[in-house]
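Table 4 source record.
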Amino acid sequence: MFRFASLGYAALQLGVISSDRYSRPGWAWAAIAVMTAWTVFTTFGYAHRRRRTFLLLSADLAITAGLLLSTFALQFPYAQRTGIMPITATWVAGPVLAWAVRSGRRAGALSALVLSGCDLALRREDIGVVINGVVLLFLAGAVVGHVARLAAALEAEREHADRVEAAARERDRLARDIHDSVLQVLALVARRGAEAGGTAAEIGRLAGQQEAALRTLIGTSPAGEPARTGAGTAQSPARAGEADLRALLLACGTEKVTVSGPAGAVMLRADVAVEVSAAVRAALDNVRRHCGGQARAWVLVEDEPDMVTVTVRDDGPGIPAGRLAAAAAAGRLGVSHSICGRLRDLGGAAEVSSVRGDGTEVTLRIPRAPASVEPMAGGRPEATGRPEASARLAI
């Protein structure tokens, strides 16, 4: 629209306003015809995003600059000295706007600089008028480029929100289907197994655990917030490269494992969240393996400004004195590697406390900004600038 409007203004300048200032009016009309053809061509060229190539943009800038400089041969010399508009008039701003929309305000300002240099060479005797044009071109390139970037970001955000909303609706549908089928079957197996006793009771217990885990999973959105139960807006997505530790740990919940945490998401770097979740699962595996099938465990997530703390506590018989050191010496490295080693590599700390006959407590502390991990000479990663992880057995 701008190109066609400015083309009409250029034709008006040539035919009516400054018709007596052109030494070669026939060639001037030929320049107007070239401008018309190029305006039509670029209108179709810029209509689709994939055709807005740097080759087309560069050609647009070069042809516009050439038409601007053709004024040297079309106007009487005195017309240039008295500030008469070049043959292109305001049409020269077209490439500036195109570059700004395609590549942002810096590209728009650079194209404005090129055309301003051509205008300065053409009308160097009237610096005041040229400076006004330069300022307007730079403002057009910078402002339009900035607004175009904002519009593109807003469009991308809207599309992302639409995708999140569609995913939430699909999740709700799947949750309803699972509730009406799988969960009911698991609940039936758990109830009948408990009534039958014997081997069937163990199958029923496992079915009950899977039912509880599945209920927790479908009750939590991908970003870690509770799934929607009615109409409303989608939850805000996590930033790229982050994951919700709370959501990962809620999936560990069973009838024997209770997971508690903040009402909102506990966001950590994605790789850190996965490693912490794996350490918690290793601690829960130890509870099942060493404390018996009737032992209960509790997982508590605490979200502080500079640190995230996860505590795993059980009501088992506790760890005898020296048991952890003996296990590490015998090559059983579940605690020292799967738990303490993971936290050490993340720049955090793991602490194991146990009282004989009164259960065990594993505390994992993860700094909000983990130190960078650098390889040691022996090949194991070492967290720099963070305290060493510790495994303390308190009797």
